[in-house]
Amino acid sequence: MTVAPTENTQAPAAPADRDELRRRIDVLGIEAQLTSDELAVRDTARRFVDERIRPNIAQWYEDARFPVEIVPELGRLGLLGMHLDGYGCPGRSAVEYGLVGMELEAGDSGLRTFVSVQGSLAMSAIHKFGSEEQKQQYLPGMARGEIIGCFGLTEPKAGSDPAGMVTYARRDGDHWIISGEKRWIGLASIAQLAIIWAKTDEGLRGFIVPTDTPGFTARVLEPKLSMRASVQCEIELDEVRIPDSLRLPEATGYRGPFSCLNEARYGIMWGALGAARDCLEEVLAYTSERRQFGTPIAAFQLTQRRLVEMQLELQKGLLVALHTGRLKDAGTLDPVQISVGKLNNVRAAIEIARDARAMLGGNGITLDYSPLRHANNLESVRTYEGTDEVHTLILGRALTGHAAFS
């Protein structure tokens, strides 16, 4: 199905117009707090989104297709595993990684999620916990986008409580045999390798599982109302046999997967703001052009109030993200602080997307405009890598000293 413009709509803002809109939105002058290197990396991602994503995303979303052809382009731009050092990885800062995530999610959450699964989850697991041989074998190709990875932690009955995992790996001489199921695993059907977390007699362990190994099956979950330009799967592991050389030797216990999840959660606090900013840009351009009763909608008091509320939440969220990134780059970040950004920024972003859709009226339910697409995607972003409830309880435990998880 071809997505065609709808009658009586104003065209979404062009890139040059968006620059002016962004200047107006940045009432606190946050951009002035960024270094020249940070701005350069951000602008590289911004140009990629303007040139490759915006013209195509409505069709990709409509067709429920992840554009796998852009993966090597992301690699050439240095956006895969960009916060990792060595092994062909760019070694950029946490703030630079966050800025790129924001720009990518301004295009679509599903595309930023790809970069997160590849870099913050699969590549981070190998970089943090793999052997030297594993790092040399896999990371350079993953950084170039030649090898796609996925991260198998969540199960059908073990989401917010990974301790309920039933996937099990048993030793058999110099091999491991893995059986179980994983669900909501991004990229699994297009990946060449999967990081699989499984219980063993020695505790929780991580494994690199080539997806062409006999017994490994990935099935795409569809139809979906969210993240349609992305791929989520369920994985079946039926007596999958791999050598011990594919076990992540430094991954022992739940510290392994949780440290990777924190990398992804950090990126989310930035990415969600990209979706929110894109919504505000679109509705700000729309209300400035759309006239009712002979007056631009943007001139009405109620419209200005709604726009300003969006602006305030977006600016506050960006301050949280930037401060968190500076702490991460300084090596002083407490994982609890990541929960502040994930909880606050995604919650704010989804409210901005919903209100922006409402301000577009009937035109807002079409794919000519991004807010409803972003709102649908953000329902997934709000759920994965820790729901609102999980992050609330993480913060509650830190605040009160009492754990309320059980």
TrEMBL record:
Its cofactor is FAD. GO terms for biological process: fatty acid beta-oxidation using acyl-CoA dehydrogenase; fatty-acyl-CoA biosynthetic process. Residues 150-240 form the Acyl-CoA oxidase/dehydrogenase middle domain. Residues 259-399 form the Acyl-CoA dehydrogenase/oxidase C-terminal domain. Keywords: FAD, Flavoprotein, Oxidoreductase, Transit peptide. It comes from the Bacteria. Residues 35-146 form the Acyl-CoA dehydrogenase/oxidase N-terminal domain. Pfam families: Acyl-CoA_dh_1 (PF00441), Acyl-CoA_dh_M (PF02770), Acyl-CoA_dh_N (PF02771). Pathway: Amino-acid metabolism; lysine degradation; Amino-acid metabolism; tryptophan metabolism. Belongs to the acyl-CoA dehydrogenase family. This is glutaryl-CoA dehydrogenase (ETF). It comes from Sediminivirga luteola.
